[in-house]
Every structure is written in C-alpha cells, then in structure tokens.
Amino acid sequence: MDVEALKSELTYKAVRSSGSGGQHVNKVASKVVLYFNLEASSQFTEEEKERLKQFFENRLNKEGILILDSSESRSQFRNKAIVTQKFLDLVTEGLKEDKERKPTKVPKAVKRKRLETKRKTSEKKANRKPPKID
Length: 134
Known about the structure:
Elements: H1 3-8, E1 11-15, H2 22-27, E2 31-37, H3 46-55, E3 65-70, H4 76-95, H5 108-128
Antiparallel strand pairs: 1-2, 2-3
C-alpha cells in the first residue's frame, strides 16, 4: 500500500466545529472532514476493495464514499493530521487477514474439575433436604 499515493486520493473540507466555544468557534473553520471514494481508488485491487467494503460497511454512504471527521484540536492543521492518521489506521485494520482458528480439545483435567464441582454442588444441595423417614 503506497501511503503517499493513497493520501493524494483523499479530499478534505474544513468546516466550523459544533458545540460550545464562544466567539472563536463561530468564526474559525477548524473541523476537518475527509472524503475517500473507495470505488474510484486506484490503489487497491478488486479483492482489497471488496474486503474494505465489508469492513467499512456501516461507514460508507450510498455513493460508496467514506466520510471521517476530526474536531479534537483547535488547529485545522492538527485536525487534518489526526483524521488522515485515523483513515490510514482504519484501512490497515480493514486489510488485515483474520488468522484461521485451530480447533482444540478440552483438556481432561478441565473436564474432571467440572464434573467434580458438579458432584460437590449436588451433594451440598442433597444435604439441605430433610432425611427420608420410611
């Protein structure tokens, strides 16, 4: 994955942050919104695009565009760096292949312990009952 080429496909937009903050927040566009068109990307193979599509399933809009934003910092430049890193981390996570699970057997000692605990619980409950009179 060529990070610089991938960054060149990103589109940024600076908007005003929401929430309280007084006069500063009302006049400065410090929030950064990142747009990435997964379908139009030339950096991924079709297989990788499918994997990313599944990973971003709930984050993609109807046009197949991923939208991320950051308003953590008061600096537009810092927010741009944060949202870009967030995007790269998500793409890296989405392209990871899951390890194949190796089925294992339950150890004999664990089975023995479980049965022993069941037996003790059963005896404890049996001792609570009044003795039978015939």
